[in-house]
Design a protein that fits this description.
Elements lengths: L1 E2 L2 E3 L6 E4 L4 E5 L2 E6 L2 E5 L19
Antiparallel strand pairs: 1-2, 2-3, 3-4, 4-5, 5-6
Length: 61
Amino acid sequence: MVAAGILTQPGCGHSVDVTPDKTVVCKDGSCLVLEPGHISYSQAQPETDVPPVVQVIPSKK
């Protein structure tokens, strides 16, 4: 389906959205985002009663 410059490809278990600015491929709550000069990935986190542990690593200067 193509509408207003957005391409969505259902049927393979993935959702794929393509715009002039970026491409986003998602499945089961995980997404790969492709932008000019940049790639990022996010993954769904399970819900738990334990808060996440955040560790800050000081930068070396």
